[in-house]
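Exam revision sheet. Question 4 asks you to relate a sequence to its structure. Input first:
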Amino acid sequence: MRKVALIHGWGGSYAATWQADGWDDALRAAGFEPVGFDIAGHGPQGGSHDPADYADLAGDLAARLPDDLFGAIGFSLGTKLLLELEVRRPGANGRLVLGGIGDNLFAPEQAGPVLVAALRGAAQEPPTPQVAALLDYARRSGSDPACLAAVLERPANPVLTEARLAQVRTPILIFNSRADAVAQPDTRLCAALPGATHRLIDGTGHVGLTSDIRFRDAALAFLSRG
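Answer key, structure tokens:
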């Protein structure tokens, strides 16, 4: 059975993101074996409240991924971690499907301080629609707010630059929505990964992408071509 890892976004969990949206069943029906777990600091199991313990989320992920992956599907933060791993060890995780990522890949988390304040109960004003959607996504995962705040406050990770992305060797599908205020535009990313396949759809926002059947169908078709 061809193993495919599913890596959720910041604030999410494997159960609340992938299982809730039917990805497990769809992958099995297409002949794949889904492999999933929660990013460090995420999910009902909790974790450390010390940002330093999340300094290398990609390394923590690599230690838990099986060696015989056929491919991996990421959303938002999960896509960043998968690209970081691809740069470190090109081709090690097979074909990559990356959803909810654009030129924000090259920039700091703009909503980070606002999200941290909200998670710690110190927000000075009502959240923007974008921040409110991310907080709702986090609530649905059952994650500890203090853990999620610590993840956002983690020490700076290596920046994914065009020079580093030039190491990418594996086939990649990048899938985004025009209504995604987090991951648009993606012109710089397209230029950095000219060999990748890019799909852009209308309709859904950032946190709703994994529940959009067009994303799931495109991911399965891309993986099935391998």
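Marking note for examiners. The radius of gyration is 16 Å.
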